[in-house]
C-alpha cells in the first residue's frame, strides 16, 4: 500500500551548486560536509552552528530545473509544518501575557463553533499536543479535490472540518492534525484582533530579524524561491512540480517560506529566551514523558537526548530546525525534493555525527545498505545479511524505496524490494499489498492476484486489496 511521504523564480546572482561553503575546522563538520557533497541528487541548503557561531552553510542542487537556476544561501524554501513552531510560540506569548491559559476551551474564544463537544471539551493544551480528536481536513476529499486558491484565510478552512464528527474523544490519543493549529491561529486572531500573519510578523519574525520569511501566496511572484519537485505520477522517472498538491498560501499550521539564515535566527532567539521568558521557553522545550511531540515541538534521538525543534514535509518539501542542546549545535535543513530524496539521509547522518547513533539511526542506515545490496548484488545476498544481523530492518523505509522504483518505472527492482520486505516482515499485510501492486504494474496479473489475496488474508479490512482484486478479476474476464 502506497506510503505518503509526508512559482516564480527571479534571476539568482552568484548562485552555484558547488558554491564555496562556510566551513570551520571542526572534525564533525568536515565529515558532514564530505557526506553532503557526495549525496546524490540532494537539493537544498544546510546551516550548522556551534555555540552560536555558524561553522557551515552551503547550497546544493537547483531552485528551478527549467531555467537551470541553482539554489543559493538566500533561496527561500517551503518550511511546511515548521510553522507550528511559530504558532505555538505565539500561543505561549499570549499565555505569558495573561490573555489565555492552557486549559481554556475552544468555546471561550470561538463561542459559535458548531461542534458542541469540541467547543466545550477541547482545550488549548489538547490543540498544541495534537490530542484534540479533531478531524484531519488536510487529507479530506473536500480539500484534496477542491481548488486551493479559495483557501487564503484561516476561517476559509473551517467549513472543511467544523461540522465533521471527532475522530476520537478529546485527550484520548495523539493524532497529528493541521486542524489543531488552524484553530490555534484563529484563537490568536480573536485575542489580538489582528490577522494571524500580522501577529507572527510583528511578534516573532521581526524580533528574530527574519526578513525573508512569511506566508506568501505561491501563485504570485516571490523573489528567490525554490520550486518544489516530487517524483512524477504521470511520467516514470521524471520530476513533477507540486503547485497543485498543497496549499496556495501558508497558515498557522505551516506552509510558509523561509531561508536557512532566517530559520537559524529563529532557533537562536528562541533558545536564548528572547521570544518567551525562561519559564515558557522551558515548557516548550521539555520532552514529554511519552511520545516525541510536545507543545509545538518535536524531540529526536534517545530519551533525554536534548535534541528539540520541528520538521516539516510534503510532496517536494523537507524542512527542519534542530537544537542539540547537550552538544551546543544548531542545524537548519531545507530541501525542495521529497523527504526520501536526500532529506532523510542528510538529517540522520547529521544527527548520528553530532550526537551518536541510536537504534532508529542504525535501522535507517542498515535498511539503506540492504536496499543497495538487493539492487546491486541480488535479493539472496540481502537476505543473508539480514539473517546475520542484529539490527532491525525499517519496513517503512524499505517500502518507500520500493515505491520510488515504481514511480521511476523500474518494476523488476520494485518487485525485488517488496519481496525482500515480505521476507523480512512475513506477517505484514502491507508488504504483500505493495508486492501485489508492483506485479500489477509489471503486467504479471496472476502474481498480483496471489499477493493481494495473501494481504487480504492477513488483514480482511484491507480495502485497497479488495478494490485491486475486483479490478484484476474484471480485467481477466474481459481478456
Describe the fold and architecture.
- It contains 18 helices and 13 strands.
- Among the domains are: 80-108 and 212-355, 3-Layer(aba) Sandwich (Beta-lactamase), CATH 3.40.710.10; 360-478, Serine Threonine Protein Phosphatase 5, Tetratricopeptide repeat (Alpha Horseshoe), CATH 1.25.40.10.
- Helix 2 crosses helix 8.
- It has helices at residues 27-37, 83-96, 106-109, 116-121, 124-128, 141-144, 178-192, 196-205, 260-271, 278-284, 339-355, 359-377, 379-387, 395-407, 411-424, 429-442, 445-458, 463-478; strands at residues 22-23, 44-50, 53-60, 62-64, 69-70, 77-78, 229-231, 239-241, 257-258, 298-300, 307-314, 317-324, 329-335.
- Strand 11 and strand 12 (317-324) form a beta hairpin.
Overview features:
479 residues, alpha+beta, Beta-lactamase, Serine Threonine Protein Phosphatase 5, Tetratricopeptide repeat, 7-stranded antiparallel sheet, two-stranded antiparallel sheet, 18 helices, 12% strand, globular, disordered N terminus
What layout of secondary structure does this protein have?
Blueprint: E1 22-23, H1 27-37, E2 44-50, E3 53-60, E4 62-64, E5 69-70, E6 77-78, H2 83-96, H3 106-109, H4 116-121, H5 124-128, H6 141-144, H7 178-192, H8 196-205, E7 229-231, E8 239-241, E9 257-258, H9 260-271, H10 278-284, E10 298-300, E11 307-314, E12 317-324, E13 329-335, H11 339-355, H12 359-377, H13 379-387, H14 395-407, H15 411-424, H16 429-442, H17 445-458, H18 463-478
Antiparallel strand pairs: 1-3, 2-3, 2-13, 4-5, 6-9, 7-8, 10-11, 11-12, 12-13
Helix pairs in contact: 1-11, 2-7, 2-8, 12-13, 12-14, 13-15, 14-15, 14-16, 15-16, 16-17, 17-18
